[in-house]
Amino acid sequence: xxxxxxxxxxxxxxxxxxxxxxxxxxxxxxxxxxxxxxxxxxxxxxxxxxxxxxxxxxxxxxxxxxxxxxxxxxxxxxxxxxxxxxxxxxxxxxxxxxxxxxxxxxxxxxxxxxxxxxxxxxxxxxxxxxxxxxxxxxxxxxxxxxxxxxxxxxxxxxxxxxxxxxxxx
Length: 169
Prior knowledge:
The protein is an alpha+beta fold and 169 residues long. The chain has helices at 2-27, 38-43, 46-52, 55-63, and strands at 81-85, 91-94, 98-99, 107-108, 117-122, 129-134, 140-145, 155-158, 163-167. The protein is globular and about 40 Å long. Strand 6 (129-134) and strand 7 (140-145) form a beta hairpin. The protein has a single domain, classed as Beta Complex (Metal Binding Protein, Guanine Nucleotide Exchange Factor, Chain A).
């Protein structure tokens, strides 16, 4: 009886550890941007995106999700460099345009190049907002608001999970 209880307990512990191991494995995915042309990115299937991105990255970039405020590694990140799209590696925002908007998400007042992003009207959740997407892979990045600092007066409020960072050399 005691041995059977011990086996049951060990089996339960091992069973509970499996999802954590699977999630840890998925979270460590790395993105390779080599040979990814804009049309290739737009033609990728849902399955290819799921293979390429972690579950949280997929939820934000491909399903227009939002990460919880204050959880991004880039919210209070102030190193010199450039922020890239996590989906395709397109340069999006220079660190010099980053500012602390006290909103819980990385915020920028300008894009590296307006051709690298696109803006679309977003009427979801009973609000009227402007969604910001990567122009190369169509990944959801966040939203832009007209309450930022000079010189643009804009606040690109971006999900950090949708970004990679390349330090200035």
